Automatic annotation (TrEMBL), chains A, B:
Class of the enzyme per the UniProt entry, highest EC level: transferase
PANTHER family with a match to the protein in the record: ASPARTATE AMINOTRANSFERASE (PTHR11879), ASPARTATE AMINOTRANSFERASE, CYTOPLASMIC 2-RELATED (PTHR11879:SF6)
Molecular functions (GO terms): L-aspartate:2-oxoglutarate aminotransferase activity; pyridoxal phosphate binding
The protein's name: Putative aspartate aminotransferase, cytoplasmic 2
């Protein structure tokens, strides 16, 4: 009789991503190009690392005074303080009034995971989560795994090839009272001041709990304050909220990625209660968070010279990326490619939609240019070596379908 | 009207531990001593770090060829391979037959957290977990949080002041069929070969799923193979099982603690299915694990000279700790302390029970010697500077209660 196996019925898990990357890796054509990396890439096609990070890493390794003990359950205090100040500014009322705090989280999903677990237990509203974002993220799956009902909305309108800032407003209008609203990288939403005010007012009256995502502060517009500016609306309207602050892409610390689950409460007493609950969840998730990434980031943020160097490096990345977008647009124009390509330069951030149809995407993949179905690419994957081939291929793709579309 | 607060009903979380440490910290007496640190301590009262770790850390920081990209979801492949070989030996059938694998986990609870989540979904038996261990761990809370019914048993018999190896056997006899059995640091159980055989046979017939814990391989007996030797029984009896392998205490990497959730399946096909499911859970927990700790450990394990240095450093720690136990016993004897103190040297590992009563523990705390109610202490906290005071205080405590006890 064969042994009964506990694992016999376990199927292979559905993969979240990776089939495009797999196809790219199996492609032997020398001209193959992958345009969907998650992080900023350098001209050499490697993940970008802020130079100041390299320097700091070496400095830390040579520091004989460093203590390698366990970090506390909530993580490094100085790291959390520096992260909060980066997000809100030193003189924000939430910091001055001791009602903003955070938990040092692990990896890029840690803060959503921790926040979702807290809300599952303590949020008294409906167990509905509405996610509004510019691009598909894994947050939806995290909330689903925790038993929430999840609705996802994209602010990119593929037909009009433009951002539709009304999506956020209409989602909030239709959302059930007492739900949770996740706004992915709010700087992408580009609401006007009066639109934000309307949003705040509706959210207040419907008691919607905001869970904001700041995935790469400084890499959207090149300006740290501008990228997190939307938080000020939530602060000034007196909201309680969570914010997932990820600090790996904007420092170029990928293998030690850390972040903070930021909590803003109405007063210090409530903040401490919430943090104590979060700590008990974090203990069951990982007990003590890893120190390396947070140590590098804290060193940079707490030293004005290093911080300035870091800011300049962010600005340089964004300027270069904007230049690439301009060049792509200009080359498509010179090739006489039908249609307007202004939407390329109108989008902020590293990732942007090319605005191509399914057929055009398929054409590009046949030309060994790997882009996803929704044609959102990472513009820093385009460099002086491959820009000619890429724009030529896009142009051909558009010409090839000129008479079959619209 | 005051704003309705989402956080208004959130109470302060119950603390898992720390009240004794808090009392110790608030104590201003210069002779105060804390004997319950989680990790090996040096003579200077600092957490022990294997010297080879310091060297490797510096070497890694100066390596210009290192790539700092995201690790894959399952973690560093070479780290997992090296960890598996450390646990089972290179030529173990489970490695040769490609049916042992692992997921790189974060912190000290990561592997139990991940394993519990998998079992919650895929284990078809009862949702009952029996935990047998030498000391109280946080595993019980992790399984409870995941919705399991948890029963915890301790193999230390405080009345007889000795390990009771029958506890494990009788728990398995009484456990419901199809339950999960967690064995904390199995080397502590000290079953004879025939007792293990009996245990295996009962577990097989009752289809009990083993989840083993190897928290500090090499720090129990000073011998790496001996500390993980029990796994060989499970392998040779053809079990499928999980094993939480923690690699922070035995390297002295506390601030970057990592481990592996080890999976042993009946064949490679099932192993890959289980790993793919675990990867999807890990993605929601942290997406990519941090690299630092695993990089140091892999460097040491894959270099025979460094590995040998590391092994010698483990042996030295254990020898020193055994010498301290001998000295404590001898000093208690010389002070004429009533009773036998052989149980101190009979216990392996850093943590051991002094075998004191509640009143005696209270006496010690009044003398500023901080030990927990169950009198289990970390023997590496005792050093040449404090041994006199500690043994004197223990002796006084025993004398003081001589006529009130037994």
């Amino acid at each position: 009789m064969p042994t009964l196996s506990v694992f016999a019925d376990v199927p292979v898990a559905h993969k979240l991503e990776g089939s495009l990357l797999k196809a790219y890796r199996q492609d032997n054509d020398p001209s193959k190009i992958f345009l969907v990396y998650r992080v900023c890439m350098t001209d050499e096609g490697l993940p970008w690392v802020s130079l100041v990070v390299h320097k700091t890493r070496l400095q830390i390794a040579q520091d004989p005074s460093l203590v390698y003990e366990y970090l506390p359950g909530l993580g490094s205090k100085s790291f959390i303080q520096a992260s909060l100040e980066l997000l809100f500014g030193k003189h924000s009322p939430v910091i001055m009034e001791n009602r903003a705090g955070g938990v040092h989280t692990v990896g890029e999903s840690g803060s959503f995971r921790l926040g979702a677990q807290f809300l599952r237990t303590w949020h008294r509203g409906t167990h509905t989560v509405c996610i509004v974002s510019y691009q598909k993220e894994s947050h939806g799956l995290i909330f689903q795994d925790m038993g929430f009902e999840v609705y996802e909305y994209c602010i990119w309108d593929p037909k009009q090839r433009r951002l539709d800032s009304n999506v956020l407003l209409s989602v909030v209008e239709r959302a059930p009272s007492g739900c949770i609203l996740v706004i992915g990288n709010p700087v992408d939403c580009r609401l006007t001041q009066s639109q934000w005010a309307k949003l705040m007012s509706t959210m207040k009256s419907k008691q919607i709990f905001p869970f904001l995502d700041i995935p790469c502060q400084g890499l959207s517009t090149g300006d740290l304050e501008e990228d997190a500016g939307v938080l000020q609306y939530f602060v000034s309207w007196g909201f309680e909220f969570f914010c997932s602050q990820c600090l790996s892409k904007n420092f170029g610390i990928y293998d030690e990625s850390v972040g903070t689950l930021v909590v803003v409460a109405l007063n210090n007493e409530q903040l401490l209660c919430v943090l104590s609950q979060l700590m008990s969840y974090a203990q069951a998730l990982w007990l003590n968070p890893p120190a390396r990434g947070s140590r590098i980031i804290t060193t940079i943020l707490c030293n004005p010279t290093l911080q300035e160097e870091w800011k300049l490096s962010l600005k340089a990345v964004v300027e270069k990326m904007m230049l690439i977008k301009e060049k792509v647009k200009e080359k498509l124009r010179l090739l006489g490619t039908p249609g307007s390509w202004d939407h390329i330069t109108e989008q902020t951030g590293i990732h942007g939609y090319l605005g191509l149809s399914y057929q055009q995407v398929q054409y590009l993949i046949k030309k060994h240019v790997y882009i996803p179905k929704n044609s959102q690419i990472n513009f820093t994957c385009i460099n002086t070596n491959n820009i000619e081939y890429i724009t030529q291929s896009i142009s051909e793709a558009v010409f090839s379908t000129e008479h079959t579309e619209n």
